[in-house]
Fold each of these.
Amino acid sequence: MSDVTTNSKPTRTRGTWSSIWLPTLGSMNFAILLLMILAVASVVGSVLQQNQPYEDYVIKFGSFWFQVYRNLGLYDVYSAWWFLAILVFLCISVSVCVYRNAPGMMRDVRRWRDDMTTRSLERMRNARVLAPAQNSTADPAATAEFCRAAIAKAGYRCRVKAAGPNTLVSAKRGEGNRFGYLATHIGIIVICVGGLFDGNFGLMFDEMSGRIQIERRAIPASEVGESSRLDTGSSTFRGQVNIPEGSQADFIFLNIKDGYVIQHLPFSVEVKEFRVEHYDTGQPKSFETDLIIHDDDLAEPLEHTIAVNHPLTHKGVTIYQASFQDGGSSLSFTAWPLGSGDRPFDIEGVVGQNETLRIGGRQYELELDDFRKFNVIDVAKDKIQPDFNNIGSSVTFKVRGPDGKALEYHNYMSPILVEGRPYLLAGVRSTPAEEFNYVHIPLGKTGDINRFMSLLNRFRDDEELARIADGLASSGGANDAATPRDDLGGKTLALLQLFNSRGFNGVDELVKKNVPETEHADVFQAYFNIIRIAAAQLYSDQLASEGISSGQAWTDDDTRYIADFLSAATALPDYGPPVYLQLKQFEHREASGLEMTKSPGKPLVYLGSALLCIGVFLLFYINPRRIWAMAREDGAVVLAGVNHRKVPGFEAELDALRTVIQTGLESSTIESTR
Amino acid sequence: MSVTSEHLNQLNERTPTSVRDYIWLVAVAALTAFVLTRYGSAMDIYEIVITIGTGISLAWLGWSWRSVQIFTIAVALLSLFAIWLYGADIGRGTENFFLKYMLASQSAIMWMSALLVLSTVAYFLGMIARSDFGLATGSGLAWCGVTMSFVGLFVRWRESYLINVEYGHIPVSNLYEVFILFCAIAGLMYLYYEQKSNTRSLGGFALLVISAAVGFLLWYSFEREADAIQPLVPALNSYWMKIHVPANFIGYGAFALAAMLGGAQLLAARGGWFQSRLPEPAVIDDLIYRMIALGFAFFTIATVLGALWAAEAWGSYWSWDPKETWALIVWLNYAAWLHLRLTKGWGGGVMAWWAIIGLFITLFAFIGVNMFLSGLHSYGEL
Ligand code: HEM
């Protein structure tokens, strides 16, 4: 911009400051450089997931690069010092730019530029001299008046002024554009300032100077030390808290780096009830919480329902529905020892707390993590119309062995139908990164888990197995005459035991180790048949013990049950601690996840945004331009114009004016206005 | 002598206002008033404001661009006809002849796809053969295609209510729907500039990017069956969505067109075969500027609306969520472009290349973020 302000006082220091630093800071090149740096820095922050647990980063990058990246602040780029520095510089740069340009622009907006001389007009690039008719007698004032009218018709505001013997029409239009420049750039400054208000530098500073200690342990809020607490006076914050139904809290957690601090609120929030409304498909339609605000300043507690997209603001703190968890549901289970012959027993617990499990003389820690009342999945057979179905409640828990290692489980409460047959699904995984692997426990026609458990106990009972193995050896083993009977029985027993301890995988490995490759499939099939026949015999024993007459012919259901039993049994060796927890009953208690923010900068940000939006349209859609028409004493008119924005329409506009004025000059005498 | 209206006409860029324009204003005002009196009692304040806003925009659009008048009437008649055919029974969509083969949203979208692709071909053939007829055909097909896209969106809107009143929502809530919106808006924007700049030879370039969107749309609906109407997730159930998303797509559409024109400009500037068939590079240059300016203006509004919405839904007007961050990146990129263009007077090849690169940045913000980065923006995962 040419209109650099010159009204700074020429004291020496300020002169140096403004003549060297200001132009650089306010220069376009610097601003564009900053824009591009900011863009690239933002890319980093969006590509690298921010604010994850630090262990995840260590796993991802290794400890060396983890350190390097941490020092660069890459895990929270947007509050890294260098990122904020770019923002601050941008803000300064725009401010300087406005400071330098605004006065000139405002002067320019007001000025008529009616000091143009014929000479200076003629020197302009698009100047044309429009000649009058041969015998024109018009005086410059009358000609000027004609020009003024024509230019005014084209939408310009004009001023007519005598310039010696000539008369000058100065016209201008589209000054709004200059206000557009001011509005956009001031808007950006205002947004930045508002953003800085909410940027919580106080907390960052307190944390760096050690006045505030980040708490990294997962401990109850009441045990967090004083140095990790902020009092109710904080002017800006953003944090979360989960409040179980029927409880209240007067603090939230602010996450910082790999830990948190506690922010106290000037009131207390009670969650009366949390609700999920569902569409008929089972997908959630809304999440709502009935809140009660307890505040000594209120005559009575304030009751209000918030929902996603419908927050509540109290004392400058806005409360949002952010998430929901289990808030400590009470659960009762039946624990089924898997095949150890022990009796099933009952166990109770509360989500979020730990219980002790004793199985087979060993002690395990049961950590109840989550309970979900509804699980909605897409069960559509074809993908045309999704068909969502609620498959009931589920529980997630960990069982930690004496060695400290834990497996994670995900059990559904109700049987789930697969091809019309009911199964209980028991999922297991060893790390959160994996998907759950589900064991399908068949319930058969009776829908009762007892049959499976009893059958499993029989299959795990060495005496039963030995009996079956002997029976098999004496009847079916005859085709191998070289092997003595006893040995055959022993081998069959070993096979069944191998299946018990390692599943079909173990059998497969055994085959691969001992048999030439060409015979793998055949031998495996033979072993498979032995295992299946054993299972079938035990199954028939089981039926007998249930009082079902053995004379009844087997149906497809029975065959299928045995196959299902084997599929479940082969997965059990990997199931970990030999117990299956069947969820029997629950008392649901939800916790509402609330996000609370205090952002005093918000009105400023909105104001700046409004300025920005208005300004952008003024900038783009108002084209500032000026036209001069000098009516010379010889009757000719010098017409010229300037257009800051160099958009093509202007030439056409000038052309049209030239024609109009030329026609006017030629066609008739312009009468004296006097 | 005084300045006569004849003189004045030469000064006006616009063809003179005719009776037709006034009828237009009156008709739109009457329709808006009708809707408000008839259904006003069932509307909340947002809906009333949106209705009035729609009326004003429509009046203004038709006033300043006459083709919109006929276009609007065509879209309205076809949509209303389809809605009337449907009655209260979504099942008619597969029974009624007109619905099944033309106007049910799925069929309308198929027609849109076909028409827009044909239009691209016609434009290119017209350009190669220097045939005005070919170009005019392209233009006509494009108008029809854009009409069908709007009809498809409106009918889909109605269908969502017919399937289940609770599902009802404006179709701008998932990737499938916004791609239709993209075709609609970018198509209309191109047609506007085609008329104003009085050249059709750029049509093939502009329609090419729209055809690409059509290609994606078809893949997305056939391969992923993404066209099923789904209820809204709670986070999207907000009035802000209704204006935030369309404003964004004016931005995306304009940036996409700018990039295609950038390609055309580079070809035209090489001289020879292309130069003889395309407008002057300077003309294209100016069109690119207009596109980017328009896109930037609406993208600014969209981002601000997004911030307002985020403040209401997530508790913070700016959370540096990847989608927000990339919107900022796109915005900064074009801000830099505009500065260089307007204050340094840069133009030509560099800026054309930059406009093309800008499309890739925009594309990443539009789709890439959903595919590769995780964040709060839940709609439209591939
Ligand atoms: C975040 C940073 C900035 C943004 C987003 C921004 C945005 C804009 C926009 C959108 C325009 C309109 C372009 C046009 O005229 O069509 C503009 C124009 C302009 N900007 Fe910036 N700007 C920024 C920083 C700066 C800085 C630091 C300077 C100082 C050198 C500056 C100087 C100008 C000037 C001189 C104009 C042209 C005004 C005119 O003559 O029309 N801008 N800016």
Note: The radius of gyration of chain A is 42 Å.
Amino acid sequence: MEVRLTGWRTENLRGGLRNLDIDLGSEPDRWTLIQMPNGMGKTTTMDLMRWTLTGRELPAATVRSLRADDHVTKGMFEIRLLIDDTPIRLQLDLDFRDGSASYWTVSADTRGGGRREGRKLPAELRELLKPALTELFVFNGELATQILDLSKSKAAEAIRSLYGLDTLDAVTERVDALVAQERTRASSVTRAVEQKGITQLQNALDEVKTAKASLDKQHRGAVTRLAKGEKELDRLDQEINARLSEDAGVRAEIELIDQRHKEIDATAGEFSTQALEVLRRPPHVHPALLARLQNLGGKLYELKLPETISREFFRELSDQKVCVCGRPIGHDERKAILDGADRFLAQDQISVINQMKLALRESKGDPDELNRLISGLQDQLADRQRLKSERDRLTSERIAEGDEILARLGQDKDALKRELDTLRETVERLTTRDPARQRALRLGWETNVPLCDAELKVRTGRLDTATKTRRFALQGESLKDLVKATSTRALDILRARVTASTNDKLSQIMKTEHIRIARIGGGLELRSDQVASKENASEGQKLSIAYAFLTSLLAEAPYRLPFIVDSPAVSIDVASRREIAQLIPDFFGQMVMFVISSERAGFAESFYGRKKDVRYLTIMPQGGGTADIQYGIEAFKDFHGPESVA
Amino acid sequence: MSFILPKGARDFFGFDGPRAFAKRGPAKREGGSRFLLFDAYYCCLLLGLDAARIGDTSLLEGEPFLASGYPETYKGQAELIAGLLVDAELRRLHVDIDDREEVERQMVHLLNLTSPTRLSTPGDELLNQYAVTGFDRMQEEMLEPDNLENFLVGYHALWAIQSATD
């Protein structure tokens, strides 16, 4: 796959770019030399090419700085390409008033001669044309020797850019962003994400777990003691009864009391059962409730609620052709009936209201029934209390008569009852879930099981969140280490590959002194046959090595790209230029070289001997920002720019 | 339908699981097993409906205690409880009882034929809120009952006070 440059065009841009159209032909030559004096917009043209190829966003100040003069409001740059022999034009539209820039693509194969917004390039090429790589083939020749400079990192950056290793940096940035996001999310639960904080949370959780175990133990102990105590109370009652029963007269009284007690329990049980059943019927609970139900029922009859005609009736009627009155039902009548139908209830709504209405009308209640039952229950409870007093009286009399055993049993029983009351309070304190009771008893997670459970849940949540967040962050660090190691390893392999490829080229072009790249670090480290480390290569050799490196690198790109270079030999002496001009032209498939007149000597003139595949353009200023373009070798040779004087 | 108890009602009635009056003394009588969680809810509800005031949903427990309509012991009472709710809502919202359209609108809003309680979802939710108000009054005016017999007597006395203030 191949990209070739066929020309470019400018409109209303500063310098010599007010209206310039460079045409390299539909089948461009392999080498193009463009000569123009400084100040004609060479650097600007190179920048415009890079921006248009990469689609870079331009600041408003940059856009405005390109304006030819105050009279123009819009400007344009267009670069023309052949992509696998298909012509495509990329355009950069500039609006000097608002400082905006937009990119467009014109392709002949698009329906309607299509000019579409954006860079509509093949996906692989669009991905390839990133700024760092584009700088390598739209190249500033004055920077060539920087590729060799070990103190800089141009060579390594070039490799990273071509092979997309810079996208691995994006993975690292994404990991950092995700970890930050996870920490923000977790911070609503806990701020602890480091080991120290997690240990504190673990300690806090252990504290509640210990408290919970202690509370559970207290609860079990209290419940067990309560059950035992209640049995003990029964035993004491039995012992007291037995002791009292030793006296035949008292025994008879006790038997009578016990018998009566059983009867009362049974009767009270019956009353309470019946009362509960009556209570479950709302009209029986209180006359007020019965009255409310009956009033509502009566009101529904009075208001004639619900309607007897349902919404469904009218919907069915609207389906008929003729009304029950014999009149035809047309479109207008049908619409009127359907609109009116919504004012009526649906059949199920009517049914439920009717059901309730019927139930209300039939609701009956005997207001006295519950009164009677509760009154009977109260009598039984009063009788039970009287029996208790009677039994207490018998006990007290015996104790007064000097029955020490009975006195001791009575004391034991009183003490046990007090203990049981305390135990019940303990159980309530331990188990109550009622927030009002918890507040009243001043309970906290240290003293109440439900509150302790809740605290346990909160602290477990905090620890889990912190642990997960820390694990997530550690996994993120591992991933970043892995990405870094992958990137480093990949760069090493790619450096070796590009080194080998560059050295192949160097072995073909440097016959006399066999200079090689020893290693690519940040820059290129050289060696020759004579010395292990070659520090003093000539300027020409350095440039040759730089271009050999560039061409080896660009050869690895999925597309063969044109090499557009500004001032390829400006910084070196004439002898070195000749050397360069002999060596580098064969490196590239298409080479477009911007030269100034001082570069003709040694460099440009070396092309004169090539009979074909060379195109010469000479651009001369005409005043007012316009330029004249002359094609051909003669004009090229004859041009005298200000630099040539110097 | 999801019946939700007011917070604190379980403790007030001494529920230990399904058994009432279990926490405050020896369970010598069987009354506790006859008194259901729904009985506790219903007793609160009647007081709330009578007062025609609703309580805040934040004073309800988090989860329903019963999710499939009324218990068997309340069979046949659905329409009457629905009627008491309609009556309470008409009073709470100061609806003119002779305003036929508004009364009908309220009933349509509160009732649903297909629900086992005959109530719509908003009707069900209001029922729980009325129970909150009833429980509030119960807590204020009654001692926590030790057993069913004491509760019946105390609850009946509350209605007697109601009668005296009517």
Note: Chain B touches chain A through 55 residues (CB under 8 Å).
